[in-house]
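Q: Given only this backbone (299 positions), what sequence would you predict?
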């Protein structure tokens, strides 16, 4: 056995800065981790060149047994972030959907449940909401320190924005029960949660958001000046279009600011007959030309 050889250094890092225990933790080799920890010269909290420690790798991989072993060591900092993106073990576990690991880490007082990374400015609950990890979102919402409405720094998107885009109704419902702004636009596209949900055809999410008075179902984005019904009409989402048309404040003939195209223009181009019919029942102009090619819906 190599560990029995005096000349063998059990804590020697490779070219990426990872030591044997770091590699073993990453790959989930619990028995190897235990053997290595029996050697005094092994540092269980040594970071590699990216700043990730063994517990960080284990948390990211969802290796709960190894995380538990490492948490028993006083030298291990369970909230140590990597130096590349400032991702903590909790953030990596939350993003990966490793609920058991998340629970273990949150039992430690020194772990900040709302610490954001530095690359995107996203918190654990932001990633969990986007990935559809409902159980983890629920666990994080039970912590007072967690801000369920914290926007990231890259797009200015909140957890409910990410969940709405992906169609995770259960998560959207939980977030709506908290003090979140259900109509918060992002800072890059100016799109609100209902906009993302309508664009992706998530009828259940659109329905929930329409029940909130604060939500403007006709809010255009800031990049193209398109409204939720514009995208829903283009994508052929009849259910979403129908729900939006039931709202008086929705203008079914509103043109975008990029090409001056209306919802019926997009629906006609894509051949969505039923949506064209629905729009024609409203006072829309079926002969409105766009400004790019001068084409009308019928042309």
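A: Predicted residues:
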């Amino acid at each position: 056995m190599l560990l029995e050889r005096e000349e063998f250094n059990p804590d020697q890092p490779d070219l990426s800065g990872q030591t044997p225990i770091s590699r073993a933790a990453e790959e989930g080799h619990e028995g190897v981790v235990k053997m290595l920890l029996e050697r005094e010269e092994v540092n269980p909290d040594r970071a590699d060149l990216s700043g990730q420690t063994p517990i960080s790798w284990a948390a990211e991989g969802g290796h709960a047994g190894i995380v538990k072993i490492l948490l028993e060591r006083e030298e291990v900092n369970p909230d140590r972030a990597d130096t590349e993106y400032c991702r903590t073990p909790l953030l990596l576990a939350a993003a990966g959907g490793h609920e058991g690991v998340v629970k273990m880490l949150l039992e430690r007082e020194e772990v900040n449940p709302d610490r954001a990374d530095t690359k995107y400015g996203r918190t654990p609950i932001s990633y969990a909401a986007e990935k559809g990890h409902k159980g983890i979102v629920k666990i994080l919402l039970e912590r007072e320190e967690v801000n369920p409405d914290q926007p990231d720094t890259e797009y200015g998107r909140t957890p409910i924005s990410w969940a709405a885009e992906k169609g995770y109704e259960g998560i959207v419902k939980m977030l709506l029960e908290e003090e979140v702004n259900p109509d918060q636009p992002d800072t890059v596209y100016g799109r609100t949660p209902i906009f993302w949900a309508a664009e992706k055809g998530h009828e259940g999410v659109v329905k929930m958001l329409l029940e909130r008075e604060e939500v403007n179902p006709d809010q255009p984005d800031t990049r193209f000046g398109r409204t939720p019904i514009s995208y829903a009409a283009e994508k052929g989402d009849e259910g979403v279009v129908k729900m939006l048309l039931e709202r008086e404040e929705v203008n079914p003939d509103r043109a975008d600011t990029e090409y001056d195209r209306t919802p019926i223009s997009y629906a006609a181009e894509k051949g969505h007959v039923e949506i064209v019919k629905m729009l024609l029942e409203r006072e829309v102009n079926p002969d409105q030309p766009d400004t790019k090619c001068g084409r009308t819906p019928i042309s």
